[in-house]
Amino acid sequence: MSDLLRPPSTDSTVAEEAARLLAGLRAAPSLTHCITNAVVTGFTANALLAVGAAPAMVDIVGESELFAGIASGVLINLGTPTPEQRAASLEAVAGARAAGTPWVLDPVAIGVLPVRTALAQELVEQRPTAIRGNASEILALAGMSAGGRGVDATDTTEAAADAAQVLARRHGSVVAVSGEVDLVTDGDRVIRIAGGDVLLTRVTGGGCALGAIMAAFLGAARSLEISPLLAVAGASLVYARAAERAAGEASGPGSFAVALLDALAAIEPADIAAEPAVLAAGGASA
What we know:
Helices cover 50% and strands 17% of the residues. It is of the alpha/beta class. It has a single domain, classed as UDP-N-acetylmuramoyl-L-alanine:D-glutamate ligase, CATH 3.40.1190.20. α5 links the parallel β5 and β6. α1 crosses α8, α6 crosses α7 and α8 packs across α9. The longest helix is centred in the last third of the chain and has 22 residues, at 228-249.
């Protein structure tokens, strides 16, 4: 698979649209419905609040479908898929699809673990607006690998590039592979975003919070008429730049987690619009 580079203006397009999304999110906070990992619920909610969204952690059967219909965006994260959460996730996806609400699937630690893997395969058939995972999770979801070591990836982002495009084309989704360089694709176009910091891997919820912010950005993108591809890439860019700022102030994982929330709150649309966004962007052919 080879990338066909687009003109340099692609960089500014991603950055400018990310800046528009951040400004739009803060002007009209996206109500972001999260069914997520019990380990990271608080951190995820705080990250959404910091970036300008309005979190709602509704994972109760009988309520999740209703709430997905009124939310701006929905996150389904499979980090701790209890029976209640599994049923609530299916309800929420049904509600999101009926209302046209964009939703994100985060297939945490799938592959070897059978319960969450079966649920992820069932959910992906419902055509998520976006799928976010590490390289091993994306490979496993595409049926090209047995997965990583729990929540940790054992594959590189580039190793999952083909799988990401296969998933995107098969399900009509934007697929984001998180790593040292994030890869975002709609099955045709590919955007790579450099940045972030290794301390994201030393804090519980670093990737989970990104999935929630993607759901918030997708919610904001509807009123701004910005494509899901650019919404997901924009969320990745804003998060990466905030992580870089936080790492510059932190002395370790504990202070980094706090500094990341502060950086998400402090980063301005002008900061994003002024920076190159991608390493490469363009079409790709399998």
